[in-house]
Amino acid sequence: MGAAVDQFRDEYASGSVVLQVTDTGGAPFTVVRAELDDPRFQDGTVWSGSADLTAGQTLSLPAALAAARCNLGASDTAPSLRVRLADGTDHTVAAADPHAVLPRLHGEQCFAQQAALAVRLRLEDTLGAGSTPSTAVLTLAADAPAEPTGTSAGPTGTPPQGILEAVEGTILLGEDPGRPWPHGVILAPGTRVALAVRPARCDPHAVAEDKVGTLLPVELGVGDATGVVKVAAPPALRAALYRFVARACGWPAG
Description:
Layout: E1 2-6, H1 9-12, E2 17-22, E3 29-37, E4 46-53, E5 58-63, E6 80-85, E7 90-96, H2 101-116, E8 120-123, E9 128-129, E10 136-143, E11 162-167, E12 173-175, E13 185-186, E14 192-199, H3 204-208, E15 215-222, E16 225-232, H4 235-248
């Protein structure tokens, strides 16, 4: 039996992963449960169900990734899968991570935890009008940290400060060249940042298959650390953005 961990486009927005099991022997078997075992993450990255494998076949089993354990000391981070078969046997199999999915997701989760001590970011529901019919305006809002506690304070006893270093485009949205996206903005609670956008592309096929185009990557500086936090458009804004792209690209209504 072989095992691996990966992430496909469908899982990117949610942060989920796929647990891959391969039948490397000559006999078929049925998997009823698979769980990731990795010290960087809490227990609970689990798939359960019933999946049949034949010799040489690989199945990709989706699982919601458990929360990261941050501030770890030196440890063996080699992941494995605990696989239960329908015959009641359990197997622990070393898991490959060919695209380095787990260290990336661990870093993203831990930076997001650190950033949340400084500021909470969200996109407001309303899509504003741009300077031309082919542009529009998003509003990135900075709210107070969810739980400002003594443990979140820096060396001087004050909460860490968040700084907007840059905003990255997506497959759906790009920067309006006439109104470049700001950077170096101190994100004090109550700050609102206007982001003028245009369609990044007008390929209907690519846009129709989009999974992450309304998930805005925001590069933040928090203390001595810099990382990217992904800010998801709420449902009303997501729908408005797709309507905007269709209109700006000149696609037929309906």
